[in-house]
Amino acid sequence: MELSGGLANQLFQWSAGRVLADEHGVPLILDASLVCRPDGRGLQVDRLSDHERLVEPGELTRRLWSSAHRWLPRVPLGLVKRIALRRPRATRRCGDLRAARVVLGSGRSPRLAGLFQEPDLLFAQRENIRERVRTRLPAGGAVASLPENYAAVHIRRGDYVSNEKYRRLFGVCSEQYFRRAIRRLDPSLPIAFVSDDPAWCRSFATSLGFPAHRILPPSGNDHFDDLATIARAKEVVLSNSTFSWWGVYLGEPVTVICPEPWFTERSRDRGLVLPGWIRVPRD
């Protein structure tokens, strides 16, 4: 399985690979070559890897990619990346599990590469996957200080704001969306904000005018702390992000509020909005 993207994408990929490997009784190899490049998000599912073999680039490879990103123009760099992704004929590149099952049935080894955002697959194996992930979520530190009942609000900005392509395809949840969504939460619950833009989030939380006791301190800078904060919440306000989607999948919230539309380009939703979720206009 080729890992790509951040924690949520890697969780989808790890889950798909784990399900396929368990089905066929074969080992799962996680290839972190892409995420360990200078433009990658880093290996983030390594703490889940008990039974998987991890393949990471060596120091020389890391240095070569660092030099390539520093000195090569964009077009030649893209060509080098495509050549580097070529694999032996003994493996076949597959972008979905159906194709991978066919390849395994023929006695060959599939190389999985893609997003694998398949909610139906995940919910069919939910107890198994949740157990594997939840046992690795942090229970101490900032997470341990959370009250038994609270609401979590995930505010995704980061590359959704700074990257023009992502802004066009996915869109950014507006401040008004979060205000409308928060008004639907149980007013007796304190709120934990989870965000990749802490400064913006602090300013927004202050602007709500809530009493100090209703705003909980941030969970920290660790992605797994943030994921655990969402997963333990009684009510959740989502951004249009698979990160908060995973928080809900791993938890058992009573109320889930999500943006409508999820992505600007609706064909990319991939069935991520689930029945029972409360849809609130995103803009």
TrEMBL record:
An individual GO BP term: carbohydrate metabolic process
Keywords: Glycosyltransferase, Transferase
Superkingdom of source: Bacteria
GO cellular component assignments: membrane
Pfam entry (one): Glyco_transf_11
UniProt-listed InterPro entries: Glyco_trans_11
A single MF term (Gene Ontology): galactoside 2-alpha-L-fucosyltransferase activity
Name of the protein in its database record: Alpha-1,2-fucosyltransferase
